[in-house]
Amino acid sequence: MLTDTQCRTAKPKEKPYKLRDGKGLYLEIKPNGAKAWRYRFELHESEAVKESTFAIGEYASIPSGETPEEAQARRRGLRFSLSEAREERTKARALVKQGINPAHHRQRERIKQTLENAVTFEAVAKEWLALKDWEDVTKARRLDMLTRIVFPKIARLPIKSLTPAQILDVLKTAATKNGPTVAAEARRTISGIFDLAISTLRANADPVYPIRKALPTNKTQHKRALNVEEIGQLLRDVDRHGGRYETVTAFRLMWLTLCRPSEAVEAEWSEFDLDAATWRIPAARMKKRKDHMIPLPSQAVAMLNVLHGLTGRYTYLFPHRDDRTKPMAAASFRQMLKVLGWSGKYSPHATRTTGSTRLNELGFPSDWIERQLAHIEPNAVRRTYNHAEHFAERVKMMQQWADMLDKWSKSGIQMVPAKKSAT
Q1: Residue 416: pLDDT band with limits 50, 70, 90
Q2: Domains of the chain: which residue ranges?
Q3: Contact 187, 207 (CB under 8 A)
Q4: Would you give the DSSP letter of residue 410?
Q5: DSSP string for residues in 83-135
Q6: Does the domain at residues 228-422 carry the CATH identifier 1.10.443.10?
Q7: Which segment of 15-29, 75-89, 236-250, 282-296 scores lowest on mean pLDDT?
Q8: In 3D, which of 107, 84, 108, 89 has the Cα closest to residue 41?
Q9: What is the pLDDT of residues 93-107, one digit of tens each?
Q10: Are 422 and 396 spatial neighbours (Cβ–Cβ below 8 Å)?
Q11: Which CATH architecture has domain 4-103?
């Protein structure tokens, strides 16, 4: 058996020579002074026995004060101490007993590692995004979030190597700099990307799962229904807002139709028939991927006729301020609400909750309200037999809703139940 002193003090000679350790392991001393660990083994192939030599790596004397990280880097460079070379011999012997050539095994592992390193998080993220059945605008928004929040930290890292600690660092930074809503979106997105990686054998586990409860619950989504007084105050505040006319108009369109914020800001003129007072949102832009016809109350028609004189030459009703070929960002609503002092008390998504609550209180049938909100009937049997759109009834309902909004925007006006003829 060798000692480390023998290995360290061995001097070169004119010809290579060996210092044997045992069980096939030896240290070869070359004339140039290089010291290399070798493992000699016999491999049974078919009926023949073939002798081979496995080059484990170079001899290394462990420096004083070497850290675990430095030791790991040294071993990755195939530089081993005596005790480490014995461990490598043990691994190689185990492979030989299975009929595997250690040299071939190392070569395959290197190729595998190279391929895994080439599969970066960014590459899988973009593949995941391309597979989504989303509108281009939605994909662009999600890619923008990834580019700003996630990619700066982990884009170029092999997806298989990412750890929960690294993902937690991404999410904590997002929560600190951008808020819990953005952090929650990043968490869901990263988890979705790992679902694809796992299903395609490019990752073994989702590192999001162990840290899913590490961040505080997102409390910034305010979806509580506003009462009548709050609705009136909000609409008065928005009317007095000195910002862009398009932002205010998009906000009012959302309230007059109870559409989703994204459906309002991304609306295209080709979807509207102002003479017929209708708005048909194509399936591609709807959450449930089904065309949705919305009746327009007279207030909405009048408002959009004015808007057409300003933006009618563009594709979108509410074009982006900097690039008129793109739609306004839904974040414009949040910025306006922040200026008005409504941030933290109300979010645009609460509009639909408010509309549903108030229309039910006004006495309108729930089927009409659910169809206006483009909700799908949860009862499968009832959904099969109930295909009614209730469009004519919704025309009357939404006109009364618009009239009530006008009244509530004037202080002191209370709710009035729906007319009996409407129900």
Answers
A1: low
A2: 4-103, 121-211, 228-422
A3: no
A4: S
A5: HHHHHHHHHHHHHHHTT--HHHHHHHHHHHHHHHHHSBHHHHHHHHHHHS---
A6: yes
A7: 282-296
A8: 89
A9: 999 999 899 989 888
A10: yes
A11: 2-Layer Sandwich (3.30)
Q: 């009834």: which residue's tokens?
A: 393
The amino acid occupying position 276 is A
DSSP letters of 218-259?
------PPP-HHHHHHHHHHHHT--S-HHHHHHHHHHHHHT-
Question: Which of 132, 135, 136 is CA-nearest to residue 189?
Answer: 132
CA distance 303 to 300: 5
Topology (CATH level 3) of domain 121-211: DNA polymerase; domain 1 (1.10.150)
Distance CA 280, CA 326 (A): 20
Specify the residue for token string 């409504």.
Answer: 342
Token pair for residue 246?
Answer: 């398009």
Chain segment 374-385, per-residue pLDDT in tens: 886 545 444 444
**Is residue 373 a contact partner of residue 281, using CB atoms and an 8 Å limit?**
no
161-180 pLDDT, tens digit per residue, is 999 999 999 999 999 888 88
Q: Which residue has the tokens 């002193």?
A: 5
pLDDT at 418 over 80: no
Six token digits for residue 183? 């952090």
Which residues is 273 bridged to in the sheet?
278
Q: What is the CA radius of gyration of the chain?
A: 34
